[in-house]
Amino acid sequence: MSNSSRRALYWAPRALSILYILFLSMFALDVFGEGRGFWQTLVALAMHLIPSFVLIVALVLAWRWEWIGTAFYAGAAALYLVWLLLRPSPPPAMKLLWFATIAGPALLVAALFFANWLKRQELHARA
Q: Helices 3-26 and 104-118 sit at what angle, rounded to 10 degrees?
């Protein structure tokens, strides 16, 4: 494995995880349009950002131990799928779009952390 491909494989799940956290955090911005007071908006924003905070903790742990990133991101995608399948309201096509948008990137990050874990010795070798 070349040095540049090692670097790309090492940084890809970490960078995509940061982008994914930022993407999910954008959904919390809807609290500003609800016409609440300052403190109510602040509490609502904090509650909406709980998934982002959990993902940040997972990323910090996965930075060192890639298997944690693999398990966490795959588990998060599975939990989202279960939650989505239990929702009665949206049509199946909408559920598929939601799954691809929210859980798809999580599965990609999990797969990249898994590849990191498998190639751990090679990625951390100093050339």
A: 150
pTM of the model: 0.86
Residue carrying the six token digits 């990625």? 123
Residues with Cβ within 8 Å of 51's Cβ and at least 6 positions away in sequence, in order, are 24
SS3 content of the chain, % helix, strand, coil (to 5): 85, 0, 15
Q: What would the DSSP string read from start to end of 53-112? A: HHHHHHHHHHHH-HHHHHHHHHHHHHHHHHHHHH--SS-HHHHHHHIIIIIHHHHHHHHH
pLDDT digits (tens, 9 = 90+) for 6-21: 888 999 999 999 999 9
